Amino acid sequence: MSEHKVVIIGAGMGGLSSAIALAHRGLDVTVVESSNAPGGKVHSREVNGVQIDSGPTVFTMRWVFDALLRSVGTTVEAEMRITPLQVLARHFWPDGSQLDLSANPQESEAAIATWSGGDEARRFRDFCKTTRQLYATLEGPMIRAQRPNMGGFMGDLGFKGLGVLAQLGPMRSLWQQLGHQFTDPRLRQLFARYATYCGSSPWQSPATLMLIAQVEMDGVWSVEGGMVGMAQSLARVARRHGAVFRYQSTCQRIEKRHGRVCGVHLQSGEFLPADRVIFNGDANALRQGLLGEEARSAVPQTAPPRSLSALTWSLHTPTQGVVLDRHNVFFQSTYASEFDDIFERQRLPQQPTVYVCAQDRPADLLPGQHERIFCLVNAPASGDGNAITEEALEQCQTTTFQHLSQLGLHLQATAANSLRTHPQDFHRRFPASAGALYGQATHGWTSIFSRPGSTTPLQGLFLAGGSAHPGPGVPMAALSGQRAAEAVMASLASTSKYPVGATFGGMSTP
Length: 510
Ligand SMILES: Cc1cc2nc3c(=O)[nH]c(=O)nc-3n(C[C@H](O)[C@H](O)[C@H](O)COP(=O)(O)OP(=O)(O)OC[C@H]3O[C@@H](n4cnc5c(N)ncnc54)[C@H](O)[C@@H]3O)c2cc1C
Fold this sequence. Notes:
By secondary structure, the protein is of the alpha+beta class. The protein folds into 3 domains: about 5-40 and about 225-300 and about 445-510, FAD/NAD(P)-binding domain (3-Layer(bba) Sandwich); about 105-215, no CATH class; about 310-430, no CATH class. The chain is built from 15 helices and 23 strands. Mean pLDDT is about 95; it is low at about 495-510. Flavin-adenine dinucleotide binds near residues 11, 35, 281 and 431.
């Protein structure tokens, strides 16, 4: 075991990925986690004795996990059971129409031709071509890269990449751009929804977020045992390589000595020495001084705009009416009001779009059979105050289930069959987040350059997770964890003039 001690604060996707990569390289890795299980936002809630995934449910970009696990001598197949979904999502509108987006774009195109006409189907084909090009252009310089700066990013894009962005009109919002892509307002609405995957408004997000459509078209998988099963598998791999997990252990302070990190203090009073620390919580926690005064300097002091929070229900209940697939979206006719309510008025949407994850589907269920359902509506990240009252929560619940019912899905959330989670709950669970589930909002075309990278001005402190580059979402947070691990390894290499295990300034150095 190496002399280098690394403490990772948080066992979210970022922390787990860092732990796997660094433990495999032989470093002495300890993961401290406040809760009693790995996963962070990837979590389940128990209703009527049944576990319901109550965080992320859409698993995309499996190549991220293929690469991570292959790099440590195993595979996704060896560690977890995943199944590709044929239907990416089923969509419902108030006019009674319904559209399945399929993993096979030709099937989607045929469905759109029947549903909206041949011209719109051709537009969909063009849209797919554009998103494919866009994704290919941005994967290297943005998604896989350590935090890009504007100059380096432009250079990495090259003439071809710049041409792709110029065609798109990179200064346009996602909503504006989709108005150029489609004439059917339902398709504009459907693809605008992807902005919410990184907690943002389609009206304020850059057109480049169209690439999320390509991410989905590249495949959506379900995981046996749920997304929580995936987090457990990753923790198991990290443990196998020697990482130690300490649950119900909250880090209270990051300690600095001689200008660099030297360990962490736990709430229990214990001190864990470390020459490298990776922080996997919300970067705002550092900014607000929750990890001590010394660590404040690790991130810029100006707080960026917060991403979306959510109001969710985990239910165990029979469903009646429309046939659900695994992922379902129930749209409203007035779309802008949802984002206006959340981002401008800081209130729960009066007309929410509802995401419904039917976790036992696409298998056929018997009539009346209980199934695991997760419903989510977007909400403002105002969980650090009392802005959202019990009355407002009740009102939103009534509106949400009435809306589902009007679009043909009948289910009832009662105290006995459901658990509700609101922004204040998320804030308590993810300190300093205010309930924002995706770090900072991706608003404005320069926002991709404003997330902190994996290195910080505080020597020995690194960042991983949805509030760091490349941003939120399960695979992106996992990528950030790998970038943090690389940065740790690079920092070790850059100081290798010191013999391994020597002491320098009272602490173990490379
Ligand atoms: C309801 C919901 C739905 C979502 N839907 C999707 C989806 O479908 N697809 C998708 O890809 N993404 C989705 N996301 C987003 C995705 O879950 C996150 O972007 C990603 O999981 C964040 O990972 P992370 O590495 O930032 O760590 P986090 O999940 O934020 O975990 C951080 C961990 O650090 C711990 N921690 C923080 N501070 C301390 C401390 N001081 N001491 C000890 N431990 C600490 C916390 O307890 C937590 O476990 C969703 C999120 C939510 C909540």
